[in-house]
What we know:
The chain is an all-alpha fold.
Amino acid sequence: GPGQADMYAGLQELGVANGEDLKETLTNCTEPLKAIEQFQTENGVLLPSLQYALPFLDLHGTPRLEFHQSVFDELREKLLERVSAIALEGKVEERYKKLEDLLEKSFSLVKMPSIQPVVMCVMKHLPKVPEKKLKLVMADKDLYKACAVEVKRQIWQDNQALFGDEVSPLLKQYILEKENILFSNDISFLQNFFSPSPKTRRQGEVVQKLTQMIGKNVKLYDMVLQFLRTLFLRTRNVHYCTLRAELLMSLHDLEISEICTVDPCHKFTWCLDACIREKFVDNKRARELQGFLDGVKKGQEQVLGDLSMILCDPFAINTLALSTIRHLQDLVGQDTLPRESPDLLLLLRMLSLGQGAWDMIDSQVFKEPKMEAELITRFLPLLMSFVVDDHTFTVDQKLPSEEKGPIPYPSAIPEAFTKFLQENRIACEIGLYYILHITKQRNKNAFLRLLPALVETFSDLAFSDIFLHLLTGNLTLLSDEFALEEFCTSLFDGFFLTACSRKENVHRHVLRLLLHLHHKVAPAKLESLQKALEPTKQSGEAVKELYNQLSEKLELRKPSPAEVTETPSMELPLPTVPTPASR
């Protein structure tokens, strides 16, 4: 069959007889057996001692093919070892000359399955495989597939489209993995999207595969970065920024200096990586990061585009925002204004650089975004006043009350706060992190006070997946409040349901939350939520699937008819005991 012919492809060019020759000999001869014997003698293994050994193997019923095969396998192993040894010995030019000669001799047999590994091994050890051979490999799907990654790199570096085809499915997989974590059914305030350390994240399959594909090849590294920039521009998906940083740090872990020394972001990313690990920017590292930003020289402003992408990584934003909230609390205690804190100003500078990444790369105008003075003189002091309100309220609760009765928690939101969240991206990001912070403290009063400001935010940030993922996790700490009509109405009707119909992702996050907390929600409220959250014809599979899971759970909760008749209808609401933190 055609497979047979392929198996011996190239032997004739080398003057070695193959099956076709034997067929020809047998067709044109009078004594077939004699002809076969002669063919065996001429083409067998040329060792005098074998002349007597082979008939002995025949007696034992060992087929000649099996014998030749085992000799061949043994020789091939020796040859592979020898090739690997040649690649390491002698002068550089000489060893590569030897390998090139070997490749020249053996390449015509590359289609023979038995010889192919040897040819591939020779190519793998050549830093520059001749162009003609690379073209032949590239043109043949099976050969290309069988190539070592070292050879593929040589092919890829001059074929961006082919490299793109290899990288593209990995990038898709990466984005999908991130989204699966954000939408995971496990909701917890202990374990969330930002829990894994940078080192752990870099062990992920996609980062490892890309690192392997790039090797030490700067050209391929640049191509991957170009893909990431292009995709980030096309989709605005910030996970590409995470991958940009992870890839650089993965090469850093392997000490690939060929690449790290030429990436101008290396030291900045390395320093930021340490902050992300601690989820805090300490003073010493803040100085270091500031040094890098101040050190961008005239004519090299383009590096700001790269730095902004590194700072746009959600893990970086998370670290900067958490640090900002911590700084604000410290300032309240020290009676200091935001504009008097250089550390805080640096955090804001990095936040705006990160948040401005898309615009900068899109416009190709490489300069740091201007910081709005109002952010520092009005918005941050406003947040500090909320912290003060909480302190005051807590202290008031503890004072012996005279006739004045209990002091109510301030419920009005300053109009300026709502406006800032709608119009200023950095203010919005910090405001959202402040809300996550009070939720984590189980501060129900502050949460309900500020929640209405989230309905309309800058480019709908309050309905973004990362925020909702973190919010749903933190809300599990307030799970007892879900029994209260007022709390549920504020949270669901006042916030989530305002966006459910227009934003599929919000619909998914609400269902995730209810799957986790449905047993805490007052039955009447649960029923109306179940109606409100029913999927429409337009809903995607994920929403339908979550809704069905929820319906099944609620079905299981319904008491059987017998139980219903026996319960006396004296269900009084249980008094809720406030948790210490929310007093």
